[in-house]
Amino acid sequence: MKNFSCGCGADIYFENNHCVTCLCELGWCPSCNTLRSIFPDGSGNYRCGDAGCGKTLVKCYNNQEKHVCNRCVLVEQSSPDMTLCDYCRFNDTVPDLTVAGNHEKWHRIEIAKRRLLYTLDLLGLPYGSAEDNFPVPLSFDFKGDVSAKRTLWFFMNKEEQVYTGHSNGKVTINIREADHVEREKARVSFGEAHRTVIGHFRHEMGHYFWDVLVKGQCEADCIALFGDHNNPSYGEAMDIYYQNGAKENWQTDYISGYATMHPWEDFAESFAAYMHMVSVVDIAFHADSLFSVEPTTAYFADLAQQHAKLGLVLNEMNRAMGLQDLVPVVYTPSILAKIEFIHNLLRNAAGRSYVNPGQLN
Fold first, then answer.
1. Which of 79, 184, 253, 288 registers the highest number of CB atoms within 10 A of its CB?
2. How is the chain split into domains, by residue range?
3. How far apart, in whole angstroms, are the C-alpha atoms of residue 59 and residue 75?
4. Which DSSP category does 356 fall into?
């Protein structure tokens, strides 16, 4: 994540809608491809505050009316009915805003979704909607459980529950994942090191990109590293996992206990780990004092090594504040081999060189 600054010179964050120093409005300008100060032009539209740009902008509908977005659209690309930004256009279903607390949860989900898509764009990955005629059209459903009773959702009846998951390009997120208390209960119950909204997005996008980049293309290579996804079937593997739990001593070869369930889950968990790695190293790369590598061009060995170094520092910082480790996983050679497969797959999809002459230390 690169650094952002308001026209007044103050530092601003990717999620901000207003500068807390000068109080001016902020918006993502698609022409500048960055977060900028924006100013009303007197006609109901906005002007990009960058002197070298000055484009006329329209706020995304979810920015202007729902206050869960901070992106804008070029006025010539806006719609007379409902203008959605390049990220909100992928939403098929949004939460019922008549339910108390749903607006705040949706806002948190949208922040995580924007960070996800920002990283996909940073890596130059292919994705698109049905309107784009993309082979595997991406879309999002953000839904709440039918039952309003206070209980952990994994103890609810099936007909009451919305399952977070992916199917044929459709990513569904149960909005309870944006409830801090409920999510922490689930994290502790499942014995997870991390359970975050953006973590769910990154995992489900692993399933999405398996369909986009692996299915019918390099399945044999994937099987050689992650295992045969056809045997046992996913349904059989799921029954075995929920009956017996994770494989013993899984830490040597898997990023998480859940990754042991089936090769598809191993791939998705490894994909999410790579997204975490790129995001952390990218933030460090844009921080003047951390001397990081550029994650979109670095060899994987350098990327992994830099991530490990940052993990030690950031974990110590979090522990000093009484927080969970930012990087809780020990990356063994077996785990790194799987993440490197993801690295090479995505570099290839983006048309970037991915030959790595070095060896992981």
1. 253
2. 4-85, 87-217, 250-361
3. 9
4. -
Distance (Å, rounded) from C-alpha 135 to C-alpha 127? 9
From residue 277, alpha-carbon distances to 84, 119, 151, 241 in Å are 30, 11, 34, 27
For 131-187, what is each residue's pLDDT tens digit? 999 999 999 999 987 654 444 434 444 445 778 899 999 999 999 888 777 777 777
Tokens describing residue 97? 């805003």
Residue 127 gets which letter from DSSP? -
CB 91 within 8 A of CB 109: no
Residue with tokens 């996909």: 120
Dihedral angle of Cα 310, 313, 319, 323, to the nearest 10 degrees: -30
Given 3-state DSSP classes, what are the helix, strand and coil percentages for the chain, each rounded to the nearest 5?
45, 10, 45
Radius of gyration of the chain (CA): 21
Is-contact 103 94, C-beta < 8 A?
A: no
Amino acid at 218: C
